[in-house]
Amino acid sequence: MRVLVTGGAGFIGSEFVRQLNEEVAILDTLTYAGDLNRLEKVMSRISFFRADVRDMEQIQKIFKDFEPEMVVHFAAETHVDRSILFPTQFYETNVIGTHNVLQASLETGVELFINVSTDEVYGERRGEGKFREDDPLRPGSPYAVSKAAADMLGRAFMRTYGLPVITVRPSNNYGPWQYPEKLIPVVIAKALKDEPIPVYGTGENLREWIHVSDTARALTKILENPRPGEIYNIGSGIELKNIDVVKKILRILGKPEDLITFVRDRAGHDFRYSLNTEKIRKEIGWSPEIGFDEGLYQTVMWYIEHMEWLEEKIKTVRNFWKMVYENESGDNRS
Ligand SMILES: NC(=O)c1ccc[n+]([C@@H]2O[C@H](COP(=O)([O-])OP(=O)(O)OC[C@H]3O[C@@H](n4cnc5c(N)ncnc54)[C@H](O)[C@@H]3O)[C@@H](O)[C@H]2O)c1
Hints:
three-stranded mixed sheet; single chain; 16% strand; binds nicotinamide-adenine-dinucleotide; alpha/beta; Rossmann fold
């Protein structure tokens, strides 16, 4: 089976490629978030196409050359804070880019398209309930809106043109190789340097945490027993307040809690996401294998062993936000 993985040099896509035992090609433009180092151990058995999903001609050429039977579409702009400042980049890559990959798949007769969406498309869920796959989408941030549009485009391509599309909606992922603009690697990086750890608002926001290896395993299981047209939530049921995640990391590292610094809340910050995962458990026979404490400990140790990588990425994060603040003129949306 020839599988084309868009965004395969990213955090989750690369774990999926490391786990997948098929003929694989990666299509990735290598933004600040993409990094081929994540694929070092498997590079000899995969092909790599450097291309931007926004560029239809490039995409069509790659599809003609590689002739994928299956496409797993991860490529996206993924950092919510950036989407608040630069929303159009998110619409271009996540909406137009997804349209281009779907269209090229249709033109070349792709047999299965897995569209990687997110739990954020449902919007926030206060109280007790959990989102089911048939709940309405009420995305709250520009990132979530762009992902909801991409999610719906995938389903429209199936309904309108018959492209066999499966949609997956994973919850918050964590694990090795995550770019340090997400909570867990940010906290590890700051704590290791005894620097103040910024926590949004009061830190009460709840997220459902799943280890990236469990998410990738869910996807490989879906490929073994594909049911086009279906949507699957991928979650662990492990819901934690951000502040509790931060405290757990500090305990692992033996660092004091007074490093925690509460900062002004993110605009429109969703309070809670929570997924009902009965469907994937019953239909696909998948369930997560990695407990949060075990996965978090292993993740912290991984970053300690990969300090050079972490420091290099932290520099790129710092330079980006420095440039943003220096250029801040009251209207810096692009
Ligand atoms: N990380 C999470 O917690 C999470 C949770 C749910 C869903 N998701 C979704 O899973 C997918 C992967 O997330 P991730 O955390 O690995 O993201 P990531 O930011 O680590 O990786 C994204 C990859 O896409 C590539 N890319 C970005 N723009 C591109 C473009 N225009 N053309 C080609 N390639 C481009 C980047 O170079 C990078 O390799 C995304 O679609 C994301 O929305 C992520």
